[in-house]
Amino acid sequence: MYRAPRGTTDIVPEDQSYWRAIERHAVAVCKKFGYQRIDTPVFEAAGLFSRSVGEDTDIVEKETYTFQDRGGDGLTLRPEGTAPVCRAYLERGMHNLPQPVRLYYFCPIFRYERPQAGRYREHHQFGIEAIGDGDPLIDLEVIQIGWTLLREIGLRSLSLAINSIGDSECRPNYHKHLKEYYQGLLGKLCEDCERRFERNPLRLLDCKRKTCQPYVEQAPRSIDHLCSACMDHWVVMLGHLDSLDIPYRVDHRLVRGLDYYSRTVFEIQPPNEASQSAIVGGGRYDGLIQELGGRPTPGIGFGSGMERIIANMKQQELAVPRGLPRPVVVTALGEGARLYSLKIAEYLRNEDLSVLLAPSRPSLRAQLRYASSMDARCVLIIGDEELENGVIGFRDMDKGEQKQLTVADALTALRED
Ligand code: HAM
């Protein structure tokens, strides 16, 4: 027996209504804010991600699915959505459009992670990117979209964590302070942190190991080392945030796991959960487009794990509309009746009704049992007698009543229901 690969899952029919509900809400919110859909390939040149996400990040170092295709090209299954969108922005000449370019996407994401609750090797993201405007108002817009989406889906007790990690101007100085602080702790840190100290000091704050937590708590804070331009951006952005009804907390440890971020970083987290289960994660990436060969162009966006949204919807017991309307079941006894039932079913489907043909069973009683098990709203019964008289039996499953009607009257009854 084959099983789905570790860390992947099937989206079975009973879960589809959650996915469709999220998509509906996400598309509606994007429409209100003027965001347009973009789809990019499932795989990209491997170099795109090492260049943008960063060689020294967990994602690139340990988690990518990278392979050589039969032509010898090095490809990587998309481990995140931002770099491909920025690649498309440049390749498709979107820098020539009015800025910012506002885009959204739904896509599968592949990361070779240790599977656990809410952490998969294939997950699906809804994400947005606003490229070409560095104004703090856009930071607010992006945060507002993530927040509005989760609220409209019905999630409650969420919290917004926010931080600024500065830019290429001020970060080197902050790194210096971080390294001075951690210098005295070398030998006490976990293996990963010992390596981060040399290669990527900001990541030291992102360590989830218990033993490193006390050191993280006491570490110097990035917002105390911002240059004046980053400080202005931060202050104005917080001012905008205060004017909205979005509760937030500044989290000095929030640095995010991808190297392209600058200035604002944020996460929306569910109640009583550790930070690694963020529902939404995002931030500014003002240096990324240039890193990929474009002119200096600011950008900001977020990604949101659909599986995590659904897990939280289930936890908060949110109802979603059924995937299919309650069906009409057509039962037929006898060869002639079966042929006729096909015609009736086609007629009703053309009228936009959901119609199931009952499987051939020897008795009406068995066919009715099937109709009950499918939660049918009504059953149309066609036997020899009905066929002869040009009528059908119409059984209302909720009222338990049955009458004989012409097909046209049956349709009227279904419409009135
Ligand atoms: P990220 O924080 O790596 O950011 O992922 C975004 C969201 O995807 C997370 O908040 C979480 O909901 C979900 N997620 C991440 N990894 C997994 C996993 N293994 N299993 C299930 N869900 C997961 C990014 O990917 C950035 N590209 C976001 C962004 C867009 N920043 C700017 N623009």
Fold and architecture overview:
It contains 15 helices and 16 strands. The protein is α+β, with helices and mostly antiparallel strands. It has two domains: 13-170 and 226-315, Bira Bifunctional Protein, Domain 2 (BirA Bifunctional Protein, domain 2), CATH 3.30.930.10; 328-416, Rossmann fold (3-Layer(aba) Sandwich), CATH 3.40.50.800. An eight-stranded mixed beta sheet has the order 1-5-6-11-10-9-7-8, with helices on both faces. Strands 13-12-14-15-16 form a five-stranded mixed beta sheet, with helices on both faces. α1 runs antiparallel to α5 and α5 (136-153) packs parallel to α9 (228-243). The model has no long low-confidence stretch (mean pLDDT 94). Bound molecules: histidyl-adenosine monophosphate. Histidyl-adenosine monophosphate binds at residues 80-82, 111, 113, 118-120, 123, 125, 127, 129, 257-258, 278-283, 301-305, 307-308. The site of histidyl-adenosine monophosphate has 27 residues, from β6, β10, β11 and α11.
Which descriptors apply to this entry?
39% helix; 8-stranded mixed β-sheet; Rossmann fold; BirA Bifunctional Protein, domain 2; 417 residues; 5-stranded mixed β-sheet; alpha+beta; 16 strands
Question: What is the architecture of the largest domain at the second tier of CATH?
Answer: 2-Layer Sandwich
Whole-number radius of gyration? 28 Å
- Uncertain runs are none
Report the CATH topology name of the largest domain.
BirA Bifunctional Protein, domain 2
Distance between the termini: 46 Å
Query: What is the strand content?
Result: 15-25%
What is the makeup of the main sheet?
8 strands, mixed
Q: What is the CATH domain class of the largest domain? A: Alpha Beta
Q: Helix share of residues?
A: 25-40%
Quote the average pLDDT: 94
Shape descriptor:
elongated
State the strand order across the main sheet: 1-5-6-11-10-9-7-8
Q: List bound small molecules.
A: histidyl-adenosine monophosphate
Mind telling me the CATH superfamily name of the largest domain?
Answer: Bira Bifunctional Protein, Domain 2
Number of helices: 15
Total count of strands: 16
Total separate domains: 2
Derived from helix and strand composition plus strand pairing, the structural class reads: alpha+beta
